[in-house]
Predict the structure.
Amino acid sequence: MNNKILDIPPEKRKHLDYNVFFKRRLKDPKFKAEWERQQPEFAMIQAMIDIRRKKDLSQKELAKKLGTTQSAISRLEKGNISPTVNFLQKLAEALDSKLDIRFLSYS
């Protein structure tokens, strides 16, 4: 498929490419600080989605393994609820994986 719009560099397109927009927004110190504050939560959510997909499970199938509902898994993956460490341990077991939480030093 020949998609002419993809041949145009992002900065020359009439609409704003998301990556260009995001890089511009990160230049704003307040936006960058808030993004960095929320980054651990975003990373955790993405890791949950990635492992579920890697195990080839739907939200409904995972919910059944956990004894919960598909809508609860959806809310979790959207970031609408914050899981407890206990829930994350159960999630890891249901996904046949190990939960690994770390604190990394800045220095």
